[in-house]
TrEMBL record:
Higher taxonomy: Eukaryota, Metazoa, Chordata, Craniata, Vertebrata
Protein name, as recorded: ARFP2 protein
Coiled coil residues, start to end: 168-199
GO terms of biological process kind: intracellular protein transport; regulation of Arp2/3 complex-mediated actin nucleation
Organism of this sequence: Ptilonorhynchus violaceus
Chief location bin: Golgi
Gene3D superfamilies: Arfaptin homology (AH) domain/BAR domain
Length: 251
């Protein structure tokens, strides 16, 4: 049984390699679904662009985290100097309060951006990647389908003695099997691409709105709007002072 499996694998590999080489050198014909392949290429291009956005958003998270940490340290320094510098107590005091407020708003913004990063990461590295795995299976099935189609066509043009007829029947059966597999995977890819596009629009509509509202509120100094944005998207921040990993460490 194991020998038969290895034998079938070897024959299949040989036929597919032969088909692949003939396509690359322009000698073999290739089955093409223009509409589907255009959608697949668009998905790959979209994934590359979203990966770039994800990389930049992670960089933004790192910079914001560093800023918040610096503001926290600066606020502590101002507060300490306020207690030890009577002549400048008021000035150091309100600067300490300002940094404390900025630090709080920065942590709130980090919560929003971290949620944005997490959602884009899921979309790119899970949802899109899952669809591309099915695409790879489809592309392999297409190559096998064309390999066995070519094999059947070559046998059909040969002599029709008893041995040849037997090989032709076997080739016809194998061709039909690979044709069914190819058509099933082609349908699967079309369905997954459709659902992926719908899911992408839904996810990005929410995430882009979140990102815009949070960034706008933060740089406008609107603490109430910033906190309301997180409530709107059901984002919960870690408890202040809790022993948990930082936003950056959770990436």
């Amino acid at each position: 049984e194991k020998f038969d499996i290895v034998k079938k694998w070897g024959i299949n590999t040989y036929k597919c390699t032969k088909q692949l080489l003939s396509e690359r050198f322009g000698r073999g014909s290739r089955t093409v679904d223009l509409e589907l392949e255009t959608q697949i290429e668009l998905l790959r291009e979209t994934k590359r662009k979203y990966e770039s956005v994800l990389h930049l958003a992670r960089a933004l998270t790192a910079h914001l985290y560093s800023l918040v940490q610096t503001q926290h340290a600066l606020g502590d320094a101002f507060a300490d100097l306020s207690q030890k510098s009577p002549e400048l107590q008021e000035e150091f005091g309100y600067n300490a309060e300002t940094q404390k407020l900025l630090c709080k708003n920065g942590e709130t913004l980090l919560g929003a951006v971290n949620f944005f990063v997490s959602s884009i990461n899921t979309l790119v590295n899970k949802t899109m990647e899952d669809t591309l795995m099915t695409v790879k299976q489809y592309e392999t099935a297409r190559l096998e389908y064309d390999a066995y189609r070519t094999d059947l066509e070559e046998l059909s043009m040969g002599p029709r003695d008893a041995s040849a007829v037997s090989r032709l029947d076997a080739a016809q059966s194998q061709f039909q099997s690979h044709k069914d597999k190819y058509e099933k995977l082609r349908a699967d890819v079309a369905i997954k691409l459709k659902f992926l596009e719908e899911n992408k629009i839904k996810v990005m509509h929410k995430q882009l709105l979140l990102f815009h509202n949070a960034i706008s509120a933060y740089f406008a100094g609107n603490q109430q709007q910033l906190e309301q944005t997180l409530k709107q998207f059901n984002i919960k921040l870690k408890t202040p002072g809790a022993e948990k990993p930082s936003w950056l460490e959770e990436q």
